[in-house]
Design brief:
Elements lengths: L5 E2 L56 E3 L6 E2 H6 L3 E5 L9 E4 L18 E3 L5 E3 L26 E5 L6 E6 L5 E6 L1 H4 L5 E2 L2 H16 L8 H18 L13 E4 L4 E5 L17 E2 L12 E3 L12 E4 L10 E2 L4 E2 L52 H12 L6 E2 L5 H6 L10 E2 L4 E2 L24 E5 L6 E5 L8 E4 L2 E5 H9 L10 E4 L15 E9 L6 E2 L6 E7 L9 E6 L8 E4 L27 H5 L1
Parallel strand pairs: 16-22, 17-27, 18-25, 21-29, 28-31
Antiparallel strand pairs: 1-18, 2-5, 3-11, 4-5, 4-12, 6-7, 8-9, 9-10, 10-13, 12-13, 14-15, 15-16, 19-20, 22-23, 23-31, 24-30, 25-27, 26-27, 29-30
This protein binds S-adenosylmethionine.
Amino acid sequence: MDEPSRALDLEESEMPQTTSKLEIKDRSQPCLADSRTDSGSQLIRSKFTDKGKQPILSHVPSGCRKSNSKKPLSAQEQANKPSCICIERENMSSKVQRRELIKPKAEQPVAGLPLSGKPISMTNSGLPRSSEKSNGDRSVKPLISKYENMHKKDVCSAHNYNGNCKTNLNIASSPLGEVKILLNCDSALGQRNFQIPRFDEVLNFVEDKYIRSYKIVKPQFSVMKLLKDLCESFLKLATDSPDISFPISSSAGVLKNCCDGSITYLNGNDSDSSKYSSEHNLEFHSKSFNHNGKRPSQYLDDITKGSEKVKISLTNEFGNEHLPKFNYIPHNVIYQNANVNISLARIVDEDCCSSCSGDCLSSSIPCACARETGGEFAYTQQGLLREDFLRACLSMKKDPQEHHFVYCQDCPIERSNNESMPEQCKGHLVRKFIKECWRKCGCDMQCGNRVVQRGITCKLQVFLTCEGKGWGLRTLEVLPKGTFVCEYVGEVLTNLELYDRNLKSSGNERHTYPVTLDADWGSEGILRDEEALCLDATFHGNVARFINHRCSDGNLVEIPVEVETPDRHYYHLAFFTTRQVSAMEELTWDYGIDFDDRSHPVKAFRCRCKSSFCRDKKRKRK
Ligand SMILES: C[S@@+](CC[C@H](N)C(=O)[O-])C[C@H]1O[C@@H](n2cnc3c(N)ncnc32)[C@H](O)[C@@H]1O
């Protein structure tokens, strides 16, 4: 039996709450390690599918249930226990389902729609009259108010018909695809002989009237079909508009006849606010608008499920795409055998600054934790990476041959490429590390030498790239050069465990998410496969799993960070900006892939980075 994963951090409050749900063994996925380049930690080339990507499903509102009631209800009973009819669009032609719906409170949003604005009622001229209350709580509620200032195409429409009748019919639509029809019989409510009829009786009565009395329709005429036509016409006109990207599913809209006499059409996506896989437990919204004022097809408010200090949204402005399936974790979690030995006893005096207090950066003499970065802290007082430190890290990526390498006799990476005849080790670059203060240090959590461990603070967004790279990550704000963006978080696996996952792979996976931890390769002797570590964000990871590759001139660089372990086979991999990055720019890093390596058992993806330094020559030629 696999042991459950262990959280790496010591503070209980920071422990990921997800370990009990891991089911790692069952979901083990394959991957093949890439041939390593000289750049240290890198994304391991392998093939993973987005197996977990799931279509968004709609369902009938849970409040609906079958009605057995035969006896007509009195007006009072009706007010307390109203009935409803729900029609699932896909079944509509074959059957009409009659169900009861628990009456929503007047101010309640209608099934996933944010109806929190001012109530709207209609004037007799058919124009919306904001906040005027004409029909008590039976008026069409705030379908319009929230969107009053939207782009013209997104503006709600509302119509009112009453002529000289005692009843009043209002139809309103919102830019979210909701059409609400309100039949208001208020004027008759006080009369002594007033009894609310059953809805199916009303339908029969109307159909009969049209067929027998008016003789203007065929015998198969159905009011419900007419209403369905109305909904579908709405949907058709809405989706024919080139400017509006409607939610994807057209198969499972729901027509609701609610207790307050209103009929609501909920289009496929809006009818279910919890359609995202229960494993993710992420709420789906189609309500948010992108920077062009257009509504994205898919929008998640926070993929981190509240586990980061900042929300990270996900948006898809292009159309149908499965949502990424993975479990968001803000900190690394040990899968099973990785030997990450975190204990205060192992941190000796030279590895911490126990006599410091407050902010180490404000002290005139750099503390022991700065030894790793040549006696100077890696960070500036503003929390950015120091210019010269960043320059040195970039030089290591650009001209690794100019820097220090170690070579192993039996290289696990070469062996992963060719088990029977592994090539000679091509060398592992000994990279620059950041050493942050930690728990045994005397400084406080606001110390300037604790940047990565404080977590993500930038406004980030996952989005569907238009170049065919799948999902990507972008910043929603300008990021100065040297800004910490996020660390690469995933399951900590031994290389051996990663190979095991490879073996169980279907081989059809589209994207890959494992990264090697080999920045200080060789410093503790040659690590065997069962000791050398990697991070796999395929099933459990953070937002960094969405960062795409760009050859050579990515705007992020990955830097190893020592936090809680003085040894180097385990460390954090943190991303910093290599230059100022504009708002809405995609964030990218160079995975270090050798696109020319034909001997590798797994082909690298066709690079679509569009960099003028792109190393994928085939793609370039095309
Ligand atoms: C760590 S994931 C990045 C997120 C991924 N795009 C997604 O949708 O989940 C790495 C995978 O993204 C895709 N990818 C990343 N950079 C790419 C690029 N420059 N060109 C084409 N595909 C890329 C490849 O499929 C790669 O295996």
